Amino acid sequence: MSEKAPEIADHAAGELRLPEGVTLYQGMPNGARRAVGIVVASFNGGITTRLLDGALAELEERGVARDNVEIMRVPGAFELPLGAMALARTRRFSCVLALGCVIRGDTPHFDFVASEAASGLQLAGLETGIPVAFGVLTCDTLDQAEARAGGEHGNKGVEAARSGLEMADVFARLRASVTR
Fold it and tell me: Are 134 and 98 in contact (CB under 8 A)?
């Protein structure tokens, strides 16, 4: 059973087609018996609160028990990688969700923070083997951030929750196949 991803403006339409006759590892965003760590930035808190609310609602809908969710608050997006790494290194979580918001200003600060947050979060996942889902908005304006935090473009926190659970599931399926 596969779920279709929603069509998003400015993204390529169409479904991924896979060849027949090959082994396929595919995860589902199933939260049953999963523990999830969330690292959330307090900077731009009005937006990140909406991302967190969306992620928590999605986790609950997907079967993650509320007492299996732990949240770490960090000051801003630049600190998200360190928080994600710390959560992942505990090995208590099936996945870690990183939620933040960086809005472009008049200086190059945005470019550095957004780039380092993305690189650092990827590194946290690569170094620990625990999926780290990228739920960080990188927007030019507050209006764009609001549209992506529960407005007309959905909620990036919801997307991060789905991605994290899907990756946790596909990793579990891969590990199960190796032990057979």
Answer: yes
Cα separation values, 107 from 34, 103, 104, 112, 140, Å: 41, 11, 8, 10, 12
Most distant pair of Cα atoms in the chain: their distance: 56
pLDDT at 4: 47
Sign of the CA dihedral 15, 134, 120, 175?
A: negative
Q: Is 153 a catalytic residue?
A: no
pLDDT for 38 equals 98
What is the per-residue pLDDT across 80-118, written as a single tens digit (0 to 9) for each?
999 999 999 999 999 999 999 999 977 778 888 989 999
Residue 2 is predicted with a pLDDT of 44
Regions in the chain scoring below 70 on pLDDT: 1-11, 180
CA–CA gap between residue 127 and residue 136 (Å, rounded): 20
The reported pLDDT for the residue numbered 109 is 80
Domains of the chain: 36-179 (3.40.50.960)
Catalytic choice (45, 109, 112, 126):
109
The whole-angstrom distance between residue 97's C-alpha and the CA centroid of its chain comes to 4
| DSSP state string for 20-81 | TTS---------TT--EEEEEE-TTHHHHHHHHHHHHHHHHHTT--GGGEEEEEESSGGGHH
Structure tokens at 136: 């960080």
